[in-house]
Amino acid sequence: MVNALEPLFPALRSLEALGLPAASLSGWFAYANAQQAQRLAGHFQHELALLAQEGAAQVDHAYLRSDAFRANVVQAVRAAEVADSDGKLRLIARALAGCLLTFPAPQVDKFQTMRVLEGLSEREFGMLLAVVGALDPLDPYADILPAGARLPGWSRDEAGAALLGLGQQGLLMGVNGGEAWRLSPLARQLVTLARLNAPWLAGNSDGLDLF
Q1: Would you tell me which of 8, 162, 172, 200 could form a disulfide with 181, CB atoms 3.0–4.6 Å apart?
Q2: pTM (predicted TM-score)
Q3: Rg (CA), the chain
Q4: Are 76 and 90 in contact (CB under 8 A)?
Q5: CATH architecture of 123-187
Q6: What residues are paired with 146 via a beta bridge?
Q7: Which domain of life is it from (predicted)?
Q8: Does 37 have pLDDT greater than 90?
Q9: Strands 172-175 and 145-146
């Protein structure tokens, strides 16, 4: 019986110094695609290295010792099982690494965000980034995007379908009877947890080329 978490154990053991009880890993187990888990492990190790460069001052040590962190590791491996590209695997790894951190208000529901990430396709995530890039960089969460807005690289029909998909997943909210879209609190959680490369995201210190 293959434990899909085993490829992540070397990276997880590197977190001992931050409070993760190494002895507890013996009880961690998940059924998932071992090959995908191995690919995820490589990306996760890379994301941990980036966090180490930033320093450990923002690490949520209590969370790291909790069952909630283990649940998010399992969730990440399951999300990796259905990931359709390396870009999606890098996003999952980045979000999982982000789970180690504390964030200022509003609080991030880490488990909820990881579950949403599992169902988000690479194409949908590309649209989310396009929406973010089209909004006011000073306060994107207060800005709105007209439903018929032109977005680089997307036809009107493609954009319309993708925006509807993001709305169905709770990442966008309709405004004025569907005449415009606004980023939802859930989208804010995803952007924050994954520490995406945006000029208005405080604390982001490295570029991110996911796709």
Answers
A1: 172
A2: 0.85
A3: 18
A4: no
A5: Orthogonal Bundle (1.10)
A6: 180
A7: Bacteria
A8: yes
A9: unpaired
Token output for 203: 């604390």
What does the alpha-carbon distance between residue 120 and residue 68 come to, in Å, rounded to a whole number? Answer: 22
Using alpha carbons, select from 29, 31, 9 the residue that is nearest to residue 20: 9
Nearest to 27 by CA among 70, 72, 80, 77: 70
Q: Tell me the two tokens of residue 2.
A: 């293959």
Report d(CA 196, CA 192) in Å as an integer: 7
Report how far residue 97's alpha carbon sits from residue 95's, in angstroms, rounded to the nearest whole number: 5
pLDDT tens digits along 73-105: 999 999 999 888 888 999 999 999 999 998 888
Q: Which residue has the tokens 């991110």?
A: 208
For 102, the 3-state DSSP assignment is coil
Instruction: Name the residue with tokens 């998940």.
Output: 30
- Spatial contact of 79 and 118, defined as CB atoms under 8 Å apart: yes
At 174 the three-state DSSP class reads strand
CATH 1.10.10.10 residue ranges of the chain are 123-187
In the structure encoding, which two tokens stand for residue 142, read together?
């207060």
- 161-209 residue pLDDT tens: 889 999 999 999 999 888 999 999 999 999 889 887 544 343 333 334 4
Residue 156's alpha-carbon distances to 5, 95, 127, 148, 149, in angstroms, are 42, 30, 12, 7, 8
